[in-house]
């Protein structure tokens, strides 16, 4: 479903590729507990053409959140994958075949006692044990509308430097997006600004077409947008300006490989949704021929939520507000990827408008 961006041979993003696998032979059943705001169990069915036999993935989580000032909440995860003949959970890097995901991240901890004045009521989280921050941004450095366009037109220029020194790039004005058939989909100079402690995506028509933006941070450990493995966390909410509820817009905040041609081995999306939806999904692509693991849960985009991807050797785990949604262990990509906050036209055009507000982002590297 997702699609992407990507910088092509000239270092430019290319319009995405969208596929929706419809024919099926694989059934993924996801069970997750607990999560706030909905039923305790969630079942999803999905198909891919890749396998002839059903694959069942079960992931369970239990969360212990202490009421005191403990720096982190503890999440315990166990995941088992029952796989029929054709799939493998072997990480290509040679990791153990059935390696269970390590303990998930301990993120999204609320700072108690009003110490945090962030718009969302939650500050940047403490650094998870075993990781180092490589991009933190609380968006307290204001940037006016017009400042996020890349004057070089390459998508490689630094267009914003935040309060923790993280530098950002952005697809340039006029660049096509996944569902625009070559027409402009990104207009960062008329969409992005930073004020009042948030990165503000003002989603609205530009020249009669819905316009989004697609920023990506440069990581301090590599000096590039790319790293292998890590934690990617973002706290955001949506503000609707009208009854269309931003159905002209789609988010696929994703990890993407250096070589576009590898996206079907490597793309990892979370959160992914039409902004009018009441559901959000994660998609872990693997294997190179259309396979993906899908995990979905209910969400109210008008409320602040923290979305987290944890990518490590042999696993990708996805969390909403610290609650595990699902873990993929299928042929997990083990080469560098970049993070794109891909917010783009959905293919509809009702003329609606609204905002995606990002309170903060945090990217960590292992070690
Ligand atoms: Ca903030």
Integer tally of domains: 1
Contiguous uncertain segments of 5+ residues: 6-103, 105-114
Classify the beta-strand content into a percent band.
35-45%
For the termini, the CA-CA separation is 32 Å
Overall morphology: globular
Query: Which H/E pattern describes the elements?
Result: EEEEEEEHEEEEEEHEEEEEEEE
Number of helices: 2
CATH top level is Mainly Beta
Per CATH, what is the topology?
A: Jelly Rolls
Structural class: mainly beta
Number of β-strand runs = 21
Ligand list: calcium ion
Per CATH, the architecture is Sandwich
- Report the major sheet: 9 strands, antiparallel
Helix content: under 10%
Mean of residue pLDDT values: 77
**Structural Rg:** 19 Å
What are the salient characteristics of this protein?
mainly beta, 367 residues, nine-stranded antiparallel sheet, five-stranded antiparallel sheet, Jelly Rolls, 2% helix, binds calcium ion
Concise overview:
This protein is mainly beta.
Report on the structure:
This protein has 367 residues and is mostly beta strands. It has one domain: Jelly Rolls, CATH 2.60.120.200. It contains 2 helices and 21 strands. Strands 3, 8, 9, 10, 12, 17, 18, 19 and 21 form a 9-stranded antiparallel sheet that branches. The chain has a 5-stranded antiparallel sheet with strand order 16-15-14-13-20. A 3-stranded antiparallel sheet has the order 4-5-11, with no helix packed on it. Strand 4 and strand 5 form a beta hairpin. It binds calcium ion (CA). Calcium ion binds next to strand 21.
């Amino acid at each position: 479903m997702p699609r992407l961006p990507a910088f092509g041979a000239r270092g430019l993003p290319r319009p995405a590729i969208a596929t929706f696998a419809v024919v099926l032979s694989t059934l993924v059943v996801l069970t997750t507990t607990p999560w706030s705001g909905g039923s305790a169990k969630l079942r999803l069915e999905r198909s891919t053409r890749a396998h002839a036999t059903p694959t069942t993935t079960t992931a369970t989580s239990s969360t212990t959140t202490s009421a005191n000032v403990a720096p982190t909440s503890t999440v315990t995860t166990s995941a088992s994958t029952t796989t029929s003949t054709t799939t493998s959970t072997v990480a290509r890097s040679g990791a153990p075949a059935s390696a269970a995901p390590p303990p998930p991240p301990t993120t999204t901890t609320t700072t108690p006692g009003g110490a945090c004045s962030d718009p969302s009521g939650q500050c940047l989280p403490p650094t998870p044990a075993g990781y180092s921050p490589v991009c933190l941004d609380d968006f307290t450095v204001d940037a006016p509308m017009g400042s996020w366009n890349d004057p070089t037109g390459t998508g490689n220029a630094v267009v914003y430097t935040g309060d923790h020194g993280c530098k950002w790039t952005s697809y340039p004005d006029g660049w096509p997006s996944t569902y625009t058939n070559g027409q402009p989909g990104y207009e960062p100079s008329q969409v992005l600004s930073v004020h009042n402690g948030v990165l503000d995506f003002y989603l609205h028509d530009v020249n009669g077409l819905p316009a989004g933006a697609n920023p990506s941070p440069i990581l301090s450990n590599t000096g590039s947008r790319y790293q292998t493995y890590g934690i990617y966390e973002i706290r955001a909410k949506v503000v609707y300006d009208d009854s269309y509820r931003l159905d002209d817009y789609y988010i696929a905040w994703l990890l993407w490989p250096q070589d576009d041609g590898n996206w079907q081995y490597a793309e990892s999306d979370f959160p992914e949704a039409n902004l009018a939806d009441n559901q959000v999904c994660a998609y872990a692509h693997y294997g190179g021929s259309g396979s993906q693991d899908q995990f979905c849960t209910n969400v109210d985009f008008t409320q602040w939520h923290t979305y987290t991807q944890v990518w490590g050797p042999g696993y990708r785990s996805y969390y909403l507000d610290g609650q595990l949604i699902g873990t993929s262990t299928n042929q997990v990509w083990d080469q560098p990827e970049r993070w794109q906050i891909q917010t783009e036209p959905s293919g509809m055009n009702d003329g609606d408008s609204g905002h995606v507000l990002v309170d903060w982002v945090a990217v960590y590297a292992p070690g």
